[in-house]
Specification:
Elements lengths: L1 H13 L9 H26 L11 E2 L4 E2 H28 L1
Antiparallel strand pairs: 1-2
Helix pairs in contact: 1-2, 2-3
């Protein structure tokens, strides 16, 4: 849900009808930034404010943000791979036309 909404907001804010052939990188970057921002906020809200859960001592965290390294890496790696697949599929389909 977070990924879908992040992409939707990015497409509405900076995408256009020609996406993904135009403005691909800005939409990708904005989607990832929104996802990271929400993740940092959500983890802060749940670990500091609500105290509904906490990290194990084994979880590497980023001291400045207080967020776990795994959730942030997921927001960099998984969407980047997904966007790369979208781009390669679009490029492959557009050359067939």
């Amino acid at each position: 849900m977070i990924a879908s909404l992040s992409l939707l907001v990015a497409l509405v804010a900076i995408g256009n009808r020609a996406w993904p052939s135009e403005r691909f990188i800005p939409v990708m970057a904005t989607t990832i930034v929104i996802g990271i921002g929400y993740t940092v906020y959500s983890e802060w809200l749940n670990t500091v404010v609500r105290k509904t859960w906490e990290y194990s001592e084994l979880m590497p965290t980023i001291p400045i943000l207080g967020s776990g390294l795994s959730p942030l890496l997921q927001w960099v790696i998984v969407p980047t791979v997904g966007f790369a697949l979208i781009r390669s599929r679009y490029a492959r389909n557009s050359t067939r036309r």
